[in-house]
Design goal:
The chain has about 80 residues and is mainly beta. It has one domain. Helix content is about 10%, strand content about 30%. The protein contains two helices and two strands. A two-stranded antiparallel ribbon has the order 1-2. The longest helix has 5 residues. It is flat, with a radius of gyration of 21 Å.
């Protein structure tokens, strides 16, 4: 016998996320990370960015991460919209 609960249950499954999409980030971490740039992709100017160097250091008792980025390439095709 199928109940209403079984009919309304949705199972998300794909080749990328075998157990459904990932859960949102922990709120404690979000206050330290600028999430506004996560929505930018290769279609947004200036293009593809690559992490070229990372330094982990201790500053006033806090663990810090210094990241260096470089522009991989920026190329627009003529006639493309």
């Amino acid at each position: 016998m199928v109940t209403n609960k079984d009919k309304n249950e949705v199972v998300l499954d794909s080749g990328v996320y075998l157990r459904g999409p990932p859960v949102p980030a922990n709120n404690k971490i979000v206050k330290f990370v600028d999430l506004s740039q996560l929505c930018r992709g290769p279609q947004n100017s200036p293009g593809h960015w690559l992490v070229t160097g990372v330094r982990l250091y201790l500053d006033k008792g806090k663990l810090c991460l210094h990241v260096k980025f470089a522009l991989l390439h920026h190329q627009r095709l003529l006639g493309a919209s």
